[in-house]
């Protein structure tokens, strides 16, 4: 009886090692039946005057993902309900009146980027007036102004888990870190200063010689806060190089990567700037829209290899044309200067993309709905924003590229033998056995029950701290001593964890 139970247990462990856990896979758009259909379109206008849209973003929380925020060149924020029925007989203006939930003037200049934070209660806006503002979305009230850039703010991105922290990129050539809880000027409570700034992050080798082109060559066009919570990716208008930074040490980038097409020389590759960056929900892939009319896909753990996929077919003639990878990393969506939007299958980049046709001007900002599979939004210089359903008639059962799950590996033979022979209850610790949530795996056998504990890095740190009586004051900076929010970016060495920095040599 004992022998049969042991064999059954090890057969199960072996199956897990070879095939991983059987988890519910998130369905993604079917490869063969990608049939786009337009759900509706709204006109971007205010008091009868049209304005070209600049940026758009769906809400992030599941209950609000049908809500879309749009910014434009006139400095307005407009919020739309995309779940409404838009009759084909209705005009764009009628659709606007019907679906627009909120509208207000946020800046006196164009708004280049927008971001929902804090369960969609607040909105961040980046503007040509050199400021970033924090808005209470319900009250349409400014609750914070981030000042410090000396050029138009082109891009913003919030921290993946602590949304009081964000990064911004500007035309002045710098990117800055901000903490919404820090205000150095008590007389102006709404004004917030940056907690760290890196100047000339992307500088042209000829920038100092060509003074008239210096501003253009220095511009930061896109920033991303990576899922490891301490790394940042930046891109600029000067070249096609992606740089990666550790927020705990911003003196120099950790590593960098760029496309390496066989048909181009190194000099030619570096002349094309990047208009936008995006990452999938798991943070495995980063896409970069390049001014050579290609979109490059990078694996964050294989950056030294350059792009793992390349998508072509669209036309990127301006830095307003953006692209976005789908949350499950199965498809790539991009605007284009030819008036169409393009969708590629990530696993089949060589296959002709699906075209979303109906815009009458350059298609600029695009976005995927986080939870309504197959819903996308596109904006254009024709002063409209359009909603599409590209999911087709069914879903594919195959896995998307980023659906890889962490799995518990089979124990070494000696530990397996020890597991069934030791009389004492033993706690097995492994730095490679990590589960998304705190959990305990209980194994039933004729011997006393043995619990194999699998825990998150946070719980491991708590356990080790209690065992060794680590005290806070052993490794404190002035910031951590005062429990300042800025200490999030400078944790004690005992709390530092593996990040993207650990996978690359410092160059």
TrEMBL record:
UniProt keyword annotations, A-Z: Repeat, Ubl conjugation pathway, WD repeat
Keyword Repeat: yes
Region (Disordered): 475-494
Pathway: Protein modification; protein ubiquitination
Pfam families associated with the record: WD40
Sequence ranges of Low complexity compositional bias: 482-494
Sequence ranges of the WD repeats: 104-145, 146-188, 324-347, 356-391
InterPro entries: WD-repeat_CDT2_adapter, WD40/YVTN_repeat-like_dom_sf, WD40_PAC1, WD40_repeat_CS, WD40_repeat_dom_sf, WD40_rpt
Family: Belongs to the WD repeat cdt2 family.
Protein name: Denticleless protein homolog
Organism of this sequence: Cinchona calisaya
């Amino acid at each position: 009886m004992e022998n049969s139970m042991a064999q059954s247990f090890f057969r199960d462990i072996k199956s897990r090692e070879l095939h991983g856990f059987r988890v519910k896979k998130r369905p993604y758009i079917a490869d063969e039946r990608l049939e786009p259909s337009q759900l509706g379109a709204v006109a971007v206008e205010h008091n009868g005057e049209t304005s070209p849209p600049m940026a758009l973003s769906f809400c992030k929380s599941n209950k609000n993902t049908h809500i879309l925020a749009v910014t434009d060149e006139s400095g307005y924020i407009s919020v739309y309900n995309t779940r409404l029925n838009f009759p084909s007989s209705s005009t764009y203006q009628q659709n606007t009146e019907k679906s627009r939930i909120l509208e207000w003037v946020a800046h006196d200049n164009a708004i280049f980027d927008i971001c929902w934070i804090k369960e969609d209660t607040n909105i961040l806006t980046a503007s040509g007036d050199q400021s970033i503002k924090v808005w209470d979305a319900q009250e349409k009230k400014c609750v914070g102004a981030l000042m410090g850039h000396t050029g138009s703010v082109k891009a913003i991105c919030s921290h993946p888990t602590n949304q009081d922290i964000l990064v911004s990129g500007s035309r002045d050539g710098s990117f800055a870190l901000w903490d919404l809880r820090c205000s150095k000027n008590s007389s102006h409570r709404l004004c917030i200063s940056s907690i760290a700034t890196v100047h000339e992050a992307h500088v042209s080798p000829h920038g100092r010689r060509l003074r008239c082109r210096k501003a253009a060559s220095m511009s930061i066009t896109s920033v991303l806060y990576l899922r490891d919570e301490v790394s940042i990716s930046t891109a600029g208008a000067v070249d096609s190089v992606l740089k990666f930074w550790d927020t705990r040490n911003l003196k120099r980038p950790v590593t960098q990567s760029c496309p390496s097409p066989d048909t181009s020389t190194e000099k030619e590759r570096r002349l094309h700037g990047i208009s936008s960056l995006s990452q999938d929900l798991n943070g495995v892939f980063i896409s970069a829209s390049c001014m050579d009319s290609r979109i490059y896909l990078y694996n964050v753990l294989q950056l030294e290899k350059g792009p793992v996929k390349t998508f072509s077919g669209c036309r990127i003639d301006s830095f307003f044309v953006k692209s976005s990878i789908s949350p499950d990393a199965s498809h790539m969506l991009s605007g284009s200067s030819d008036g169409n939007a393009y969708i590629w299958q990530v696993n089949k980049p060589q296959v002709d993309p699906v075209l979303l046709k109906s815009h009458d001007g350059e298609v600029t900002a695009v976005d995927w709905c986080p939870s309504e599979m197959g819903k996308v939004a596109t904006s254009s210089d024709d002063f409209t924003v359009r909603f599409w359903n590209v999911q087709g008639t069914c879903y594919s059962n195959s896995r998307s590229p980023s659906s890889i799950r962490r799995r518990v590996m089979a124990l070494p033979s000696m530990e397996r033998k020890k597991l069934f022979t030791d009389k004492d209850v033993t706690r097995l610790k492994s730095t490679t056995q990590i589960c998304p949530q705190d959990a305990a795996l209980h194994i039933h056998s004729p011997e006393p029950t043995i619990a194999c504990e699998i825990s998150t890095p946070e719980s491991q740190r708590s356990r080790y701290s209690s065992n060794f009586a680590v005290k806070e004051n052993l490794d404190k900076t002035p910031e951590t001593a005062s429990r300042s929010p800025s200490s999030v970016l400078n944790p004690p060495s005992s709390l530092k964890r593996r990040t993207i920095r650990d996978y690359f040599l410092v160059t």
